[in-house]
Amino acid sequence: GVDVPILMYHAVSDNLWGIESLFVSPEDMRAQLEYLTENGYDPIFFSDLTHLSDYDKPILLTFDDGYDDNYEYLFPLLQEFGVKATVFVITGALGNEYYLTEEQVREMSESGLVDIQSHTVNHDELETLSYEEQAYQMSQSQLDIARITGKIPYVLSYPSGSRDDNTLELAPEYYSFGIDMNGGIWHIEGDYFQVDRIYVSRFDTLDEYIAMLP
């Protein structure tokens, strides 16, 4: 088995229109990517977990919600450093203020550097929904993303980490992975539908960031 750090981000911007800790500054994002690339880390997609032996130090960079700053600030950095990232989009929010447009999602997906995956349709906490409502949130977001990108998403990030027994029963019908919020470094032999991540905050220094990594 292999321990694979999965980092959880949200926004990349100094325009702090929401919860401040969720906004990693573009300057800090650059420093973090620079550290990873200079120290032998291999940012991968979830699909790359099937051939981990190809990587010395695999790591997954994930961004929740699908904010437009992921296109404005993050995407150029990924291109500059040649780094892969996964963006979990709320499909019902695409085109709204502060969120990615369908055109931006398509461009990022076609670049080969960004894997567009599901964060449901409305970002409702799944454990508050009925079985049928959860099934809709999973299936419709999958259809939405497939229509926009031409690729069927295979990873679901649970909104706010919320899930219940219905979630864990339904998710494998549509997806190959179910992603939690905070919880530390994920061990690849663990549960594929209770995948842990490490939360990266705006307030983490580079030294604190480095200390999170194996």
Distinctive features:
single chain; 214 residues; alpha/beta; eight-stranded parallel beta sheet; two-stranded antiparallel sheet; 6 helices; 12 strands
Helix content: 25-40%
Rg, alpha carbons:
16 Å
Assembly classification: single chain
**Which regions are unreliable across 5 or more consecutive residues at pLDDT < 50?**
none
Major β-sheet annotation? 8 strands, parallel
* Alpha-beta classification: alpha/beta
Molecular shape: globular
List how many beta strands DSSP finds.
12
Q: Proportion of β residues?
A: 15-25%
Separation of the first and last Cα atoms: 15 Å
**Count of helical regions:** 6
Strand/helix succession: EEEEHEEHEHEHEHEEEH
Instruction: Summarize model confidence as the mean pLDDT.
Output: 96
Tell me about this structure.
The protein is of the alpha/beta class. Helix content is about 35%, strand content about 20%. The chain has helices at about 25-40, 70-80, 100-110, 130-150, 165-175, 205-210; strands spanning about 5, 5-10, 10, 25, 40-45, 60-65, 85-90, 115-120, 155, 175-180, 185, 195-200. The strands form three sheets. Strands 2, 5, 6, 7, 8, 9, 10 and 12 form an eight-stranded parallel sheet that branches. Strands 1-11 form a two-stranded antiparallel sheet. Strands 3-4 form a two-stranded parallel ribbon. Strand 7, helix 3 and strand 8 (about 115-120) form a beta-alpha-beta unit. Helix 1 packs parallel to helix 2 and helix 4 (about 130-150) runs parallel beside helix 5 (about 165-175). The two termini are about 15 Å apart. The model has no long low-confidence stretch (mean pLDDT about 95).
